[in-house]
Amino acid sequence: MVTKNQLLSKEVFAIYGLGNVGGSIAAVWLRAGAKVIGVDISKTLLQQIKEGNSHKKEPFLSETFSKSIKKKTFSLTSNGIDASKKSSIKIIVVPVGLKNKKVDLNSVIQVTKNISKGLKKGDTIILSPSVPPGTTEKIVLPILEKQSKLKGEKDFNVIYNPERIFEGRAVKDIEENYPAIISGLGPKSLKMAEKLFTLISKKGVLIMPTLAEAEAEKLFEGAYRDVNIALANELADYCEKIGINFWETRKGANSQPFCHLHYPGTGVGGLCIPVYPRIIIEDASKIGKVMNLLQYSRKINDNMPKKCVDDSINMLMKNKIKPINAKIAVLGLGFRGEVTDTRLSPTYDVVDEFLKKGCIISVHDPYIFEDKTLPKSVSLTKNLSEATKNADLIFISSDHKTYSKLNSKSFPKGRKSILFFDGRNILNSKSFPKGLLHTIGIGKT
């Protein structure tokens, strides 16, 4: 029987993509005792890792990287071909996103081509991003075989292992919270997958019969959440219309063990939940299948920024403030609270909707100091006083913990009362005089 130390001592891991997910996967293998080559095209990120100030919102990463660099068990490069030549296990963790609402596999394809140029007999390739079912076997495998002149399963192992993390606790999720989903091209690949992932997952492994079923499993996780959030958004809107409190109603409903209503909010962001349903929708369209529920749920969630801005504009008008040139402070650019990731953040749509109304916008985020996606007319600052100066309305877009402490007395006396729109239900309604706060999902009495 091969021990953990024996297995890891003879393998060198190359992790392709060192973002929030890939960085966490690299850290887990380093913590397990492996030698790791970190590969990323971002010279800035590689330098931040070397300096020990990367991944600030992800526990354990910077500390693990710094210690491992000193021990010479962790090296960094932007040369994917060279990393493939020097490693025996290659883990692909580059993002799969949307381009013109179409699944974009370009990063996966490019990394696979680089790996194929250094692929050797006995190597193992692991794909981790969320991809359409069939991607590993029909797209990744042919690229590897064509360039290397080797045969999958016979000469090298092919594994699909979807990442299953929640940003802000990624290392703990991989090591402790969930079983690792594994699948292989054949028995030999699956055996290798089982050997590897039992080393890092305390919850063990969950074997999927085929690569495509493992790929679909990951998409289903996100699709479930997107539909659930859409249901919460629709029920919250219903509660507002009939004058009751969604949050209290939700608490009661979720006391029944078969009910798991999620949170409504200003929108769904990140490269996970809003992307997975679209991958399924696009893939299904190729076989003539219309995913009605997923499409309608996406429509509901995509419309939430506009709905919340419209509700905010109504607040202004009821308080006799004209939307044109009204000063709006939008709090939070991260796609959700306590993250520095802005990809597909609903805040971008919130800002665009306010601009359409003629408002003047400033954006605050305690963790994000620069952004090239926001319109040039919109200021971004980490100074809350600066962002809210002379504001007519404060709009909570991301549920950063620091915002939960705000109330109607948070700003200098002698100013006009500032209106608040709470799109995440993090403010204490008892701290606001009647009429100054609107919280999504709470009916106005």
Describe this structure in words.
β5 and β6 (102-104) form a beta hairpin. The model has no long low-confidence stretch (mean pLDDT 95). The protein has 445 residues and is an alpha/beta fold. The chain folds into two domains: 4-209, 3-Layer(aba) Sandwich (Rossmann fold), CATH 3.40.50; 211-445, Rossmann fold (3-Layer(aba) Sandwich). An eight-stranded mixed beta sheet has the order 3-2-1-4-7-8-9-10, sandwiched between helices. A six-stranded parallel beta sheet has the order 13-12-11-14-15-16. The protein has a two-stranded antiparallel sheet with strand order 5-6. The chain contains 15 helices and 16 strands. The chain has helices at residues 4-9, 20-32, 43-51, 61-71, 80-86, 106-116, 135-148, 170-177, 187-197, 211-242, 246-253, 276-285, 292-318, 346-356, 384-388, and strands spanning 12-16, 35-39, 74-77, 89-92, 97-99, 102-104, 124-127, 157-160, 180-184, 205-207, 327-331, 360-364, 379-381, 393-396, 419-422, 437-439. The chain is 41% helix and 14% strand.
Quick tags:
2 domains; Rossmann fold; 16 strands; elongated; 445 residues; eight-stranded mixed β-sheet; alpha/beta; six-stranded parallel β-sheet
